Amino acid sequence: MMAEKFNFKKILFACGFTLICAAINFAGAKFAAVVHIPLYLDSILTISVVALYGFVPGIVCAVLSNMAMVVFMGSSSLFTFCHLTTAILAWITFWYFDKKYPNEDRKLDAFLWAGFFAAISNAILGNIIADVVYGALTGRPQADVVAQAMFTAVPNRMFCIYISGFIQNLTDKMLSAGLSFIVFNKIKKWI
Question: For residue range 2-22, what is the model confidence (pLDDT) as tens digits?
Fold first, then answer.
């Protein structure tokens, strides 16, 4: 009976943590839009959800974050695929590190690799979606301004879209990886 109660609490905490992280992801995206920071900030804590609770909560966090952005910010639901790749690649990265270093706690390098792989995938997928479907505009003026500024110096639309998208995603996902590592360590100690 005691084990059932513990598992219920663990599942309840995992669900609550996932919801809170999805809300923080949405708040980050909203903050970036309001303050005009040329980053996305929509997956700030997705990597921490994957690190603590695994694949399914990470996917749930990604979908909830992006659906909130679709409903409340008018974002495109197609960009949910970018966020899903963040969760999937974080899970694969942690799986690899757990397999290669089975007796070690998760270190910062695992989080940074997860962020790096997410940055590459998000840059490729997000840029393709923005270019093919939306004529190179992401629908987030704070992010689009970087490509537009580059275009004034280098009048090559494709170059500007893909380079600015890569730089923004790399910065965004490294920030997410670092914050996720901090939150992971705090929550791990607490639970």
Answer: 445 558 888 999 999 999 999
In single-letter form, the type of residue at position 135 comes to G
Q: How buried is residue 151: exposed, middle or buried, by Cβ count under 10 Å (0-12/13-18/19+)?
A: middle
pTM: 0.89
Tell me: the pLDDT tens digits for 59-93? 999 999 999 999 999 999 999 999 999 999 999 99
For the chain, the maximum distance between any two Cα atoms, rounded to a whole number of angstroms, is 68
Q: Tell me the residue type at 138.
A: T
Comparing CA positions, the residue from 119, 161, 123, 169 lying closest to residue 144 is 161
Sequence letter at residue 190: W
Say how far apart CA 102 and CA 81 lie, in whole Å. Answer: 30
